[in-house]
Amino acid sequence: KLFFTDYGNAAKVERCDMDGMNRTWIVDSKIEQPTALALDLINKYVYWLDIYLESVEVVDYQGRRRQTITKGRQMRHLCGLAVFETYLYTINSDNLSILRINRYNGTDVQALARLDSAKEIRVYQKRTQAAVRSHACEVDPYGMPGGCSHICLLSSSYKARTCRCRTGFILGSDGRSCK
């Protein structure tokens, strides 16, 4: 799945398949300006930062069990969001510090370090990486991902795929080759 935020006409947190199909709103109320998103892949939770409402909140992948993690003026200057183990990590754009927030109760907010400049934060650790299994976009014997001549996107499951073409090309009637 692909998770993303939108704060155009109607602010929301959404998800869809990697090919853009099955687009679903998972949060569409009491939300104004969601600017950062982080996923707990193990427990299937979506965390987001709303700088207008000055809050960090969480829901499960279906948009249920919504909770506010923390709220207040200190949230106004945050950008970027990452989750790892017990904590959320974010950047305070006002003083360029990395903040650590307990993701279960919003307490234990601690500045860890200062940076020269930053707008985003990511945690790279072996335990945060999902195990790779056989999938529909694996390279075929001819070197084509999923049998697609240009782009292979996973669809509704790791067993299904959709072929797409680069700009200037159209998908052929076979659903795989681009012309």
TrEMBL record:
For this chain, one GO molecular function annotation is:
Wnt-protein binding
Q: Which PROSITE patterns match?
A: LDLRB
* GO BP annotation list: canonical Wnt signaling pathway
| SUPFAM superfamilies linked to this entry | EGF/Laminin, YWTD domain
Instruction: Please list the residue ranges covered by the LDL-receptor class B repeats.
Output: 1-43
InterPro entries for the chain: 6-blade_b-propeller_TolB-like, Cueball_EGF_LRP_Nidogen, LDLR_classB_rpt
Question: What would be one Gene Ontology cellular-component term for the protein?
Answer: plasma membrane
Q: Which domain of life is it from?
A: Eukaryota
What name goes with this protein? LRP1B protein
Q: What species is given as this protein's source?
A: Dryoscopus gambensis
Q: What is the lineage of its organism?
A: Eukaryota, Metazoa, Chordata, Craniata, Vertebrata
